[in-house]
Structure formats: structure tokens, C-alpha cells
Design a protein that fits this description.
heterodimer; A: about 100 residues; mainly beta; Ubiquitin-like (UB roll); five-stranded mixed beta sheet; two-stranded antiparallel ribbon; 1 helix; about 30% strand; globular; B: about 475 residues; alpha/beta; FAD/NAD(P)-binding domain; Arc Repressor Mutant, subunit A; seven-stranded mixed beta sheet; 19 helices; about 35% helix; about 20% strand; binds FE2/S2 (inorganic) cluster
């Protein structure tokens, strides 16, 4: 069950299945990944390495790095990725600095 | 490694206009941009989105299509989804695209890297649900998302634009909590003549305000004591207005108090920047064509000082004219003949700026945050930490790295740099120019080992 999203979606787009932190989600194919996760009600993308505080997208333009998620073992900015069928996304483990 | 006459970084209005003009004059141009479709942030995804919700976004947004159309020229290579992480002498540009590193060479480079939201550190600004107003715009433009229960906080015409668009989308914001005051407006009236010359902006602003008012959106101006409440996410905005405390429950907070040049790439090349008191940010030092003090490096658009999308477009064309002349494609006389109408258009575009800058100054409490407020989002350094560093003798942003990790996280100071400069300048009684800014070094964006390993053949030596 998706939690209630703080966002209203204006577009109707065919959906594909992805997994976020073990939960299956149907997201609009080809959509911006960070936006799609927000629309699906995902309120926390990661925890900070310093204090463990929750974070979610802040800038949506690749500048703040608050939207970092882990995909195939690589920590990446969700706002710079598109939704693809079968993505397995998780919160970055062991802090969430992008891989140097 | 392929070489081109001109490599342009950033496919917003300045970069797109420059590419089209340069190609028309005979230059071979490569345009690199992080997004998968041209437009920059202002015209984000315009080719696809104009038909979907041009009515909500307005004519100024749709104008972007005239610029993306200019990219269909045989001499322009547009590398989409390309993240530039180093620009080195000579020039060699390193970037990542589709998970692989690659490099190209250029005789000249034009940086059209645009603007970032001015950092707005207020209590609670790191909570999920708090975003920049620019992010709100991007969500609406590219993804068709409208926040159901949003409060818009800060100062500046962008707040009116986003509120008006939300009204048109049928989901008005709960409130607009603005920090500018009547005395700001009064001070700005000195520049009313400029505002009247730029009357189109004024008229648009007033029309949007009327639209917002008709929709019944509550407006509070001169708000102070801003504080976003919530434990794991934003739950409410608290503020003081005319001596009374208000609390508005909400799920989204959009912050904005102006945009500032994104100076990362220019700084990494050593372009000189100076503090601009009126715009309260560092701007690069350029000549009238956008030529910097680093030979071969040109700049155009909001990355050179905030002027807006139309001014950016004009600046991109001016830079392209100078580049075409410098590379021998047109004479100086031809350059000047073509530039004349652009110079006057630029002056017209800039006329309303002083009025706007003074009428909507940055939010004072976010420029000098209270000690407990986090200012470096990545490493969670507070304003009090920076003041303590100053008390221990820290004079400039680069020295803060000896005391703590401010600016050392993945955003590389993009959302704390100006705050750190302001805090140190204030604590040490120095000017922002004396205090300086973070030294920026490549990689400008994180590169993975996998991306380096997949580097295009023949250019691996350069990746050391
Ligand atoms: S939301 Fe800021 S980098 Fe993705």
C-alpha cells in the first residue's frame, strides 16, 4: 500500500514495477525517479551519515545530493535518473556520500 | 579525443542561444548538458511539456521552444545527460554519459551553467518536505506534480509565478509567507524609472498577484521568526507577522529568496569573482562579450549575475558573436553590426533588475542564521560552528576545512558556500571579497570508478 502522497499527479503515464527498500511500487515509466518516488509517497530517501537525520529531494536539479539512493551497489542522485522497469532502489548503506 | 571550436556547458537559454548563433556563423559546437532534454531549469523539458500543460506554465515557458528549435543544426552536437566533472587547460573537458567517462577538446569554452537557489538556512530546512521553490517548479514542469498542501516562503517574483501556476493547476498554495517589508519596497522606488522601462515585468507581476488574490491565497509580508516544524518530515511553518505568531500545518514548504550564480565550473578554472552588493552574491568578472580573465573561457546567462532567461538568451548570442570573430569566422565590424540590437535589448531586459533586487532582498534571518541552524546540509555543520571557527582565528572558507567538514560533502559547498562566507565576514569584520569563497577543484561532480574504468578508449591517460 502506498502512503498518501503530498503531491497530486496531473499526468497519466503507463506504469512499471520497481522496488524501493523492499516495497514494490508502480511508477510512471520514463519519469524522473525522484519525482516519481515523491508522488508514490516516499518521504525519506536516505539518512545522513553524520546524525542519521532523514532526507528527501531538496533541489531537483542535481545540486544538493539530498536525493541519493543506491541502485546496483552505486549511490546516485535520484533526481538525475529516469524510472525503468525493475529498478531495485534502496537507501544508501553506511552513510550516503556518493561513491568517490 | 575529438576537438571542436566551441564547447558549451549548459543547455539553458544562454547555452542554446549561443549554440545556435555560433553554428550559424560556421563554428563546430558541442553542447553538453546534464539533463536528458534541452531547456535548462527555466525551460525544463519544454518540447514535451508545452503541449501537456503550457496553459498552466504560461507563454514565457513556451518561448523556450524557439530556443530548442535552434539546436537542430548540422554543426551542433548536443550531448544529453552528460555530467561535466573537469575542465582542464587547453581545453579538455571530462564528462560522464550513460555510465561512461569520456573527454572532448575545445578551442574555446562557454560556461552557461545558470543559477542555483540562494541557500535559505532557517530552522527545519533540512526536513523532508522542504524544497526550493525551483524544485517545486521543476516538479510541476517536468513531472506534472503539484503539492497538495504547500506553503511558499521567502521573497521574490518566482514565488508569485509558482503560486499562480498552482492556482491554474487547481491546487493553490495554503499561504504565501513573504519576508520583504514595506520599507524594502520604499527603498526600491528609487529605481522605479528602471522598473517602468521594464514595465512588462511589473505588469506580469501585478497580474500574477491579482490571480493569487482572486484564488483566496493568504499572504503575509514582513514575516519573521521562520521555523519549519516536524520530526521526520515537515509538518508546519511557524512565523511571526505583525507581532502575532502563526502556525500553518502543511506537508510541503517551498523556500526561495532569490537565485545566485552557479560558479562551480568557473571557479575551478580560476575565473576571478567579485562580490556584488546589490545581488548579495559573487559574480564572475567579465567583459561586455562574456569573456573572462582566463583566456578562452567565456560565460553567459544567470551564472554571470542574475538577469533572467531573456537576458541570458541575449548574452549567449553576444558571446557567440565574439567567439565567431575571435576564431576568424566574421569580421569585427560584422560582429558589432549584429551585436548592436542585442546590446540595447540587454539594457532593456536589465532595466527592472535594480528595482526587483531592492524590493525583494534576501531574507535577513537566513543570511545570518541563529547558532543552532544547520548551514551545511551535507555535513550538518551549524552557523554556531562556523562562528566558533571564526573565534578560533578562521578567516576564510578554505580554512574552515581545518576545523570541520563544512563544504566537504558531495554538494561541494553549493548550498553552504555563500552562508559560510557571510558568517565569517560578519564575525571577522571583513568584506565578502576579503573573506573569499571555497576553492573549487575537480571533480565538479562525483565520478565512480566504474565510470572511469569505462572511459572511452584513447583518453584513459587523462583520467589520472
Ligand atoms: S534533489 Fe538535489 S541533487 Fe537531487
Amino acid at each position: 500500500m502506498n502512503p498518501v502522497s503530498p503531491f497530486l499527479e496531473l499526468d497519466q503515464t503507463p506504469r512499471v514495477e520497481v522496488v524501493f527498500d523492499g516495497t514494490p511500487l508502480s511508477l510512471p515509466a520514463g519519469a524522473n525517479l525522484a519525482a516519481a518516488l515523491l508522488a508514490a509517497g516516499i518521504g525519506e530517501f536516505r539518512r545522513t551519515p553524520v546524525s542519521g537525520a532523514p532526507r528527501a529531494p531538496f533541489c531537483m536539479m542535481g545540486a544538493c545530493f539530498d536525493c541519493l539512493v543506491e541502485i546496483d551497489g552505486v549511490v546516485r542522485q535520484a533526481c538525475m535518473l529516469d524510472v525503468r522497469e525493475g529498478l531495485s532502489i534502496s537507501k544508501p548503506k553506511g552513510g550516503s556520500h556518493a561513491t568517490p | 579525443m575529438q576537438r571542436h571550436d566551441l564547447v558549451i556547458i549548459g543547455a539553458g537559454p544562454a547555452g542554446m542561444a549561443a549554440a545556435a548563433t555560433a553554428a550559424e556563423l560556421g563554428l563546430s559546437v558541442t553542447l553538453l548538458d546534464e539533463q536528458s532534454r534541452p531547456g535548462g531549469q527555466i525551460y525544463r523539458d519544454v518540447d514535451r511539456v508545452a503541449a501537456l500543460r503550457g496553459d498552466i506554465l504560461g507563454a514565457d515557458y513556451i518561448h523556450g521552444r524557439s530556443l530548442t528549435a535552434g539546436l537542430h543544426h548540422g554543426a551542433i552536437t548536443h550531448l544529453e545527460g552528460a555530467t561535466v566533472w573537469a575542465i582542464e587547460d587547453g581545453f579538455r573537458i571530462s564528462y560522464t554519459k550513460d555510465g561512461r567517462g569520456a573527454q572532448i577538446g575545445a578551442e574555446r569554452v562557454l560556461l552557461a551553467t545558470g543559477a542555483l537557489e540562494r541557500p535559505m538556512p532557517v530552522p527545519g530546512w533540512t526536513l523532508p518536505g522542504v524544497m526550493t521553490a525551483g524544485a517545486g517548479q521543476i516538479l510541476l514542469k517536468q513531472s506534472g506534480l503539484v503539492a497538495r498542501q504547500a506553503v511558499l516562503v521567502g521573497a521574490g517574483p518566482l514565488l508569485y509565478l509558482i503560486a499562480a501556476q498552482m492556482v491554474r493547476a487547481g491546487t493553490p498554495p495554503l499561504a504565501m509567507v513573504e519576508t520583504q517589508t514595506r520599507s524594502d519596497l520604499f527603498r526600491a522606488l528609487r529605481h522605479l524609472d528602471g522598473a517602468l522601462r521594464g514595465w512588462r515585468y511589473l505588469a506580469k507581476g501585478l497580474a500574477m498577484l491579482a490571480e493569487i488574490k482572486r484564488a483566496g491565497v493568504a499572504r503575509y509580508t514582513g514575516a519573521t521568526g521562520l521555523r519549519i516544524e516536524g520530526t521526520d518530515k515537515a509538518e508546519a511553518l511557524r512565523f511571526t507577522h505583525r507581532g502575532r505568531t502563526h502556525r500553518i500545518a502543511c506537508t510541503t514548504v517551498f523556500l526561495h529568496h532569490g537565485v545566485v550564480p552557479n560558479t562551480q565550473a568557473a571557479r575551478s578554472l580560476g575565473v576571478t569573482h567579485r562580490w556584488d552588493t546589490r545581488q548579495a552574491c559573487f559574480n564572475p568578472v567579465l567583459d561586455g562579450w562574456g569573456q573572462s580573465d582566463v583566456p578562452g573561457i567565456f560565460m553567459a546567462g544567470d551564472g554571470t549575475g542574475i538577469g533572467g532567461a531573456k537576458a541570458a538568451e541575449i548574452a549567449g548570442r553576444l558571446a557567440a558573436l565574439k567567439l565567431a570573430e575571435a576564431l576568424g569566422h566574421i569580421s569585427a565590424a560584422e560582429r558589432d553590426r549584429r551585436a548592436a540590437p542585442l546590446h540595447s535589448a540587454k539594457a532593456r531586459e536589465r532595466a527592472a533588475r535594480p528595482f526587483l533586487d531592492l524590493a525583494y532582498p534576501p531574507c535577513a534571518e537566513a543570511m545570518a542564521p541563529e547558532d543552532a541552524t544547520t548551514i551545511c546540509r551535507c555535513e550538518e555543520v551549524t552557523a554556531g560552528d562556523i562562528r566558533r571557527y571564526a573565534a578560533l582565528g578562521c578567516l576564510g572558507p578554505n580554512q574552515t576545512k581545518a576545523f570541520g567538514r563544512a563544504g566537504m560533502g558531495p554538494c561541494q559547498g553549493r548550498y553552504c558556500g555563500l552562508t559560510v562566507t557571510a558568517l565569517l565576514a560578519e564575525a571577522n569584520g571583513q568584506t565578502p571579497d576579503e573573506t573569499g569563497y571555497y576553492r573549487i577543484r575537480p571533480p565538479l561532480k562525483p565520478v565512480t570508478l566504474g565510470e572511469l574504468a569505462a572511459m572511452d578508449h584513447g583518453s584513459q591517460d587523462a583520467a589520472e
